[in-house]
């Protein structure tokens, strides 16, 4: 059994390749900075963080968090964006008073309805 481990300089992806037996099979699993996995079939799609839809979801996250937590956050930008089936995983930047912070968020989308499922500071 042979295993190789690669860590790219931007720390976005970690690749693990495993060869099982001399002629049996080879599998590659990629783990993103978010701790999620994708396989060779593209289970998670990396999105353009400047896409107007991603910006709209980022603003939605801040608006929802304000309602739930009486927070004073102001949306600044989407830093990273991934899409899985029915959910978005984003890193957003928001200002809390005078301090800019990053947050990892998960938003589920069913049709036109969005639900904020996770919100944590990174």
From TrEMBL:
Spans traversing the lipid bilayer: none
Pfam families in the record: SQAPI (PF16845)
Keyword annotations: Protease inhibitor, Thiol protease inhibitor
One GO molecular-function entry: cysteine-type endopeptidase inhibitor activity
InterPro entries given in the database record: Cystatin_dom (IPR000010), Cystatin_sf (IPR046350)
Domain (Cystatin) ranges: 48-121
Signal peptide residues on this chain, from the entry's feature table: none
Cell division found in the keyword field: no
PANTHER family named in the record: CYSTEINE PROTEINASE INHIBITOR 5
Protein's recorded name: Cystatin domain-containing protein
Biological source species: Fraxinus pennsylvanica
Source lineage: Eukaryota, Viridiplantae, Streptophyta, Embryophyta, Tracheophyta
């Amino acid at each position: 059994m042979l295993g190789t481990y690669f860590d790219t300089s931007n720390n976005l992806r970690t690749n693990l390749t495993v060869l099982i037996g001399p002629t049996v099979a080879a599998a590659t699993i990629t783990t993103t900075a978010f701790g999620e996995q994708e396989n060779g079939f593209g289970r998670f799609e990396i999105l353009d963080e400047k896409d107007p839809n991603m910006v709209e979801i980022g603003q939605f996250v801040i608006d929802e968090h304000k309602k739930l937590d009486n927070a004073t956050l102001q949306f600044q930008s989407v830093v990273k964006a991934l899409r899985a089936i029915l959910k978005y995983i984003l890193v957003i930047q928001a200002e809390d008073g005078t301090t800019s912070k990053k947050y990892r968020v998960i938003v589920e989308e069913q049709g036109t309805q969005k639900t904020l499922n996770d919100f944590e500071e990174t």
